[in-house]
Design a protein that fits this description.
Layout lengths: L1 E5 L5 H7 L5 H9 L3 E6 L2 E11 L3 E9 L8 H15 L4 E7 L4 H7 L3 E6 L7 E7 L1
Parallel strand pairs: 4-5
Antiparallel strand pairs: 1-2, 2-3, 3-4, 5-7, 6-7
Length: about 140
């Protein structure tokens, strides 16, 4: 059984060690804004979902990550559905995310009802697929 909860200040050492995609100061700010959800199992953090607002008005899932050994077990679906419910309860009617075209995550998001809505091509990178979902 998993527990999904908001990250708090006490979680900063774990997040700063494991989420190396953004600066520690950004992680701290997002924790303060309640924009990081954690997944725990037996009191241990096994994954997280980090989000922000695209165009300052649309929830955008920036990061969904699970530690090795906890992937492919349905936990990602559970936290995404939890986040979508939270966003709907806050009055949003659409959410967004993205995935590189060479990543398996794109198939996961499509299974959850996300639709291809555009793309971005940066030099030296695979195509970034933008997904949206009405909630």
């Amino acid at each position: 059984m998993i527990n999904i909860r908001l990250a708090k200040k006490a979680d900063l050492p774990f997040l700063e060690k494991n989420d190396r995609h953004i600066r520690p100061s950004e992680i701290k700010a997002l924790v303060g804004q309640n924009r990081i959800l954690l997944v725990e199992m037996d009191g241990e953090i096994i994954g997280w979902l980090r989000w922000s607002l695209f165009w300052d008005n649309t929830p955008f899932m920036n990061m969904l990550y699970f530690l090795e050994g906890y992937r492919g077990k349905g936990y990602g679906r559970q936290i995404v559905e939890h986040w979508e419910t939270q966003m709907r309860n806050c009055g949003y009617d659409m959410v967004m995310t993205s995935s590189l075209s060479d990543e398996q995550a794109q198939h996961f998001y499509r299974k959850l009802g996300y639709v291809d809505s555009g793309s971005l091509l940066l030099p030296g990178e695979a195509l970034e697929i933008i997904f949206t979902k009405k909630i």
